[in-house]
């Protein structure tokens, strides 16, 4: 994959490998937040889950989170701090832990390693996040809005998740999204039959 400011060249790492990278690397942590949604679109298409992403300041889609530093004490502490800044008070109702970790991706050109997590929320917690996000510190600045990812594919094979994936994503956010929704069982497996993108196999 060719490197660019939003599509970095790099490699997938296990957590232990990422820890061993050394002091010259910067660490960024992001999380996919999801919650079950039993409703049906038009009364017949299961929504399955609410999966959140963000419209970023640069016009690309990404996940809540950001850079962490030594003062945070751990990646998870830094990520939870970032969530409070980007999502507001509702982020205090849950905590992303080490058990929510999924992958790391190292961009050697920029010496940045992106750590990815997925956290299951209750429907009530998710509703609070979506309601409170517009009042968060970074809303309208680094974060332009919250976006739900459609966890279905319409009968035309294009509408829903396939159309959503045509958007512009920051870094490896699209690969992170596909890995998580597939391996966590958030989307109907049949939806992947319509995708032209090869789903990542790292983890």
Oligomer state equals: single chain
- Bin the helical content: 10-25%
Number of E strands? 8
For the biggest sheet, the summary is: 8 strands, mixed
| Rg, Cα atoms, Å | 17 Å
Class derived from helix and strand content: alpha+beta
Which spans of ≥5 residues are poorly predicted at pLDDT below 50? 1-6
Tally of helical segments = 5
Would you summarize the structure shown here?
This protein is of the alpha+beta class and 203 residues long. The chain has helices at 15-19, 75-87, 123-132, 161-164, 173-183; strands spanning 11-13, 26-41, 45-56, 61-62, 65-68, 101-107, 112-120, 143-148.
Structural description of this entry:
- Helix content is 21%, strand content 29%.
- With 203 residues, it is of the alpha+beta class.
- Strands 1, 2, 3, 4, 5, 6, 7 and 8 form an eight-stranded mixed β-sheet that branches.
- Strand 6 and strand 7 form a beta hairpin.
- It is globular and about 50 Å long.
């Amino acid at each position: 994959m060719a490197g660019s400011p939003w599509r970095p060249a790099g490699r997938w790492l296990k957590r232990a490998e990422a820890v061993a990278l050394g002091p010259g690397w910067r660490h960024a942590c992001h999380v996919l937040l999801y919650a079950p949604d039993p409703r049906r679109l038009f009364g017949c298409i299961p929504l399955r889950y609410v999966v959140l992403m963000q419209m970023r300041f640069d016009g690309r889609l990404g996940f809540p989170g950001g850079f962490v530093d030594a003062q945070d004490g751990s990646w998870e502490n830094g990520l939870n701090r970032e969530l409070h800044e980007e999502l507001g008070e509702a982020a205090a109702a849950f905590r992303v832990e080490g058990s929510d970790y999924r992958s790391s991706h190292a961009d050697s050109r920029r010496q940045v390693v992106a750590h990815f997590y997925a956290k299951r929320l209750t429907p009530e917690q998710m509703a609070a996040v979506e309601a409170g996000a517009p009042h968060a510190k970074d809303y309208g600045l680094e974060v332009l809005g919250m976006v739900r990812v459609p966890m279905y594919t319409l009968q035309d094979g294009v509408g829903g998740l396939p159309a959503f994936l045509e958007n512009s994503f920051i870094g490896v956010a699209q690969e992170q999204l596909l890995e998580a929704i597939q391996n966590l069982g958030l989307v109907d497996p049949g939806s992947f039959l319509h995708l032209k993108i090869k789903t990542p196999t790292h983890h």
